[in-house]
Amino acid sequence: xxxxxxxxxxxxxxxxxxxxxxxxxxxxxxxxxxxxxxxxxxxxxxxxxxxxxxxxxxxxxxxxxxxxxxxxxxxxxxxxxxxxxxxxxxxxxxxxxxxxxxxxxxxxxxxxxxxxxxxxxxxxxxxxxxx
Length: 131
What we know:
- The protein has helices spanning 4-7, 11-16, 36-48, 57-71, 91-99, 104-114, 122-130, and strands at residues 18-21, 27-30, 73-77.
- The chain is mainly alpha-helical.
- It has one domain (10-130).
- The radius of gyration is 16 Å and the shape is globular.
């Protein structure tokens, strides 16, 4: 049997993010998609659109990518520039990369992981602390 508190969400992890492996050694620190700050920002952006529907998926990405870069993608590791120099994460850098159509897989990976409840469970944190 499992205690519910062992699988309950860790609200600090949801807000601050957790490190996940992406590809070729890249690590991303991703917060939960349901954080209040992100939800407020999405609601505000939708009101600014006057609730008109998205024309296509690219239209939705164009609106959401800057919000994901600010509220969901918290940091990255092992990403370099063209000269091989480490790139520090900033919201502007994250937005630029998430808006690049060549990085749609990155965008979709972040959204998928940000919805993965198991990443943010209390039990995960306690297991990691034991190791």
